[in-house]
Write a structure and sequence with these properties.
Helix content: over 70%
Shape: globular
Number of strands: 0
Order of helices and strands: HHHHHHH
Number of helices: 7
Strand content: under 5%
Radius of gyration: 20 Å
Distance between the termini: 32 Å
Amino acid sequence: MGEHTYRQFDTELENIRSKVLQMGGLVEQQIIKAVEALDTGDKALISAVIEGDKIVNRYEVEIDEFCTQIIAKRQPAAGDLRVIHTVIKTITDLERIGDEAEKIARMARSIEEANRNHLPRIELKHMENSAISMLRGALDAFARLDAAGAAAVVREDETVDNEFRSVLRQLITHMMEDPRSISRALDLLFVSKALERIGDHSKNMCEYVIYMVKGRDVRHIGVDRLEAEARS
């Protein structure tokens, strides 16, 4: 490829990365709106999240098509191919995070339609904040090509998992003590599982960042080794 073609290719890659960050920003807003709807029962917010998921899906399709075109047209070499591979996997996880936000909104609707009757008093705010923080950290690591930052976010996943287990124990206790709470407790269980899955998808995105920057596949190797790989 000539110099002009290389510049065009760099511009195309940067445009793709920018699109991913736009999609990520939208997905983050979806989560924020969904958890606010859970707290307030705001029907307009619930509808906005459910409708917004269609836009998230369109982003995934458009970016995926753009990546396919670049592979066919440019036949990228190793480093650039890693970028495109990372983008394709990242948008898949972002789309799934969007699905989890929609799930939270639908649970918020179910709770509101039941007039919050027999709703267990469970504190989810810290888990919500942790999940959103992980997504923000993953997107920041992607934007900055920051392997060490990505590794730090992976470490946070343990906190979200522990919080999920704590919520699960509390919900089981509520259901045992008051069978009338079972339906609403299950709604909150689905919400907490959705938040836990958001953490998992954000962790995946960070593993892709480390692969993109370092050229090493760090899936399934444990957090300590992953951090070492990110620093090396």
